[in-house]
From TrEMBL:
PANTHER family: HTH-TYPE TRANSCRIPTIONAL ACTIVATOR TTDR-RELATED, HTH-TYPE TRANSCRIPTIONAL REGULATOR. InterPro entries: LysR-type_TF_proteobact-type, LysR_HTH_N, LysR_subst-bd, WH-like_DNA-bd_sf, WH_DNA-bd_sf. It comes from Roseomonas elaeocarpi. The lineage of its organism: Bacteria, Pseudomonadati, Pseudomonadota, Alphaproteobacteria, Acetobacterales. Coiled coil: none annotated. Belongs to the LysR transcriptional regulatory family. This is LysR family transcriptional regulator. Residues 1-59 form the HTH lysR-type domain. It holds the Pfam family HTH_1. Keywords: DNA-binding, Transcription, Transcription regulation.
Length: 304
């Protein structure tokens, strides 16, 4: 039994939840794919897959093995690329993860341009707002917004995101426009779950100003914050890559622009122990360059 081939077949079957689809992707017969899995299960002494006439699903042992098998295959690919990195044109598949709103509004167009530039690279993009495990879930690159916890992960800053204080024209007409951040304590404020939402801090003419804020809505997605603010629910600190278009369309108004909220770093995170390989290095360099070139696109329009 070729263990690497068997693991590759197992990964494909697990991801497709189908022997037939996995066999087609690997240019194998269904019976050959089934034999590879049977040999692997016999070698390991455990059942990896539950099989019925309608579906294929992972056993608990299969879920654990899938994570490890992905790591093995990723390390094999990395080892091959590292061995001949100087001679290789960037190529191969990259499994990338990013937050939902950032991926939809910002990353998607960048990746389209990247794939045009590098025709031999494929990208499998997953968008989620949960904190994924880079190693366990087999990602080559994860984009994370905000402070990174201490870890063995390899990270490079590729951009900066600024939060804009925004509200709808209707809310401002009904409740008034704050003249100072301290006025926010008397307004409804919409919060992002997982942040220090009860206190908002700004840098202004007199230095740092911290304001205790309250509100009736919290959410874990910045599109939801923007929609609620646009609907007149109150003020929100909205990332510039989401807020700018709404400001240009008149759905939101930036308030107190002379008081800047904190800037948030965007990092490209890799699994530990990986030397830069052409495909990963190409994507990280491309994203850093695109952020530098496009930074003006995410500045709100100023009166006059």
């Amino acid at each position: 039994m070729n263990k690497l081939v068997a693991m590759e077949v197992f990964i494909k079957v697990a991801e497709a939840a189908s022997f037939t689809r996995a066999a087609e992707e690997l240019s194998l017969s269904r019976s050959a794919a089934s034999d590879h899995i049977a040999d692997l299960e016999q070698h390991l002494g455990v059942r990896l897959l539950n099989r019925t006439t309608r579906r294929v699903s992972l056993t608990s042992e299969g879920e654990v093995f899938l994570s490890r098998a992905r790591q093995v295959m990723s390390l094999m690919e990395t080892a091959e690329e590292e061995a001949s990195a100087g001679a290789l044109t960037p190529h191969g598949r990259l499994r990338v993860n990013a937050p939902v709103s950032f991926g939809q509004h910002h990353l998607g167009p960048m990746l389209t341009d990247f794939l045009h530039k590098y025709p031999e690279i494929e990208i499998e993009l997953t968008l989620t707002d949960r904190l994924v495990d880079v190693v366990e879930e087999g990602f080559d690159l994860v984009l994370r917004i905000g402070r990174l916890p201490d870890s063995t992960l390899v990270a490079r800053r590729v951009g900066t995101i600024r939060l804009l204080l925004c509200a709808s024209p209707d809310y401002l007409a009904q409740h008034g426009t704050p003249q100072h951040p301290a006025d926010l304590a008397r307004h409804s404020c919409i919060h992002l779950i997982g942040t220090a939402w009860h206190t908002w801090s700004f840098e202004g003419p007199e230095g740092t100003v911290s304001v205790p804020v309250t509100g009736r809505l919290t959410a874990n997605n910045v599109d939801t914050l923007m929609s609620a603010a646009s609907a007149g629910m109150g003020f929100s600190l909205v990332p510039n890559y989401v807020a700018v278009e709404a400001i240009r369309q008149g759905r939101l108004v930036e308030v107190l622009p002379e008081y800047r909220s904190r800037e948030i770093q965007l990092h490209a995170v890799q699994p530990p122990g990986h030397l830069p390989v052409p495909k990963t290095r190409a994507l990280i360099d491309f994203l850093a360059e695109q952020f530098r070139l496009r930074s003006h696109e995410f500045e709100p329009p100023r009166p006059g």
